[in-house]
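3.2 Worked example (two chains)
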Amino acid sequence: MKKVIIKTLREIPRQFFLGIIIGGFFLISQTSLVSAGECPRASGTLIPDSWAPSLDQLKNTLQESSKTDSNAPQQAMNLASQNLADVADAQLFILYIELMQTLDKQKRIQLFKEQERWLAKRAKSANESVTSKGGSLAPLEYSAAFSKITEERLVDLRKRLRPLHAIHPPKK
């Protein structure tokens, strides 16, 4: 059972990282537009309405996998925690883009700058939360703090997006 969980945890990143890499390139291309102040309003959407990755299912699977084997080696627990943090970060990225699509040029620029500040603050806060400096537990502590901070931001952005969806519902 232990080997199956560890194998599963090792396979998930391979499937998931391609999406993160593509998303990163996309973010970089959008960042240059926003920082240049160009921020064009696309006639369509950046995220197609039909695209619905099952990140919640992946997150639940990772959480359940990490709970089933409480005697897993520290390295496996660190990997599971990092994978959960990566999933939360991907969810945040998707939500951020969805929110950006609903805003006018000025508010997009404001959100972009706010997100830049928030990302720097998240990294600093996650680093400060690590009490096991240099130990094998440090990556687990960092990932757990990173996930918690990211989940809080997800709640904040979802609250902002809901009223906008009430005014302009997403196309189905």
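3.2.1 Second chain
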Amino acid sequence: MPISSVTKLFRKNKVIYEGKDLLSRIVTGYVDIKSKTTFDRIAKFIKGKKLLDVGVGAGGISKFLTKKGFFVSGLDIADVALFEGTNVRVYNGSDFPFKDNSFETALIVHVLHHCADSLRVLEEAKRVANRVIIIEDTYRNIFEKLIVSISDCLGNWEFYIHPYHTAEWWRNLVAKKGWNLVHMESYSELTYNYLYGRYVLFVIE
């Protein structure tokens, strides 16, 4: 989803998630392609019903999870959510405005490589949630890194180099921080059925 450009068109007139008008149906259908795929992959790792969505963006995952019966709070450096009623709390990009252990699970999906200080975001998520589920763009070789970078730029309409890390880099970071690595896996998929992506999913407590 081209967050930085397309979503700004909806700032004044957000659409209704699963609304009956044509625009709402198109937007909901589009974002649900990714949201459903993401949910199917992370569902078994979600603990509890009180969730924090770090880096809400378009808001597709937040609205999808809300529909599934979860109580979702969103956090982002700007409110660019496409849907009416999306719960987005704007913050400074560094300090999460929540007390320790405020949530049962925090989700950070395709967000960390967009952050100015990804480690700080991860540390804050760990502080406010009992469990953190992360999905990050990754790569196994230089060629794959190039393909992932191009797909990410096209998908988000952000034409600059993002700081990607290998799965092993993330594993080492978790170990260095002394966090419990509940699960880790890497996989490839076609995002929105046409953009190639290589991802690492890991769960920490």
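3.3 Remarks
The chain is about 30% helix and 25% strand.
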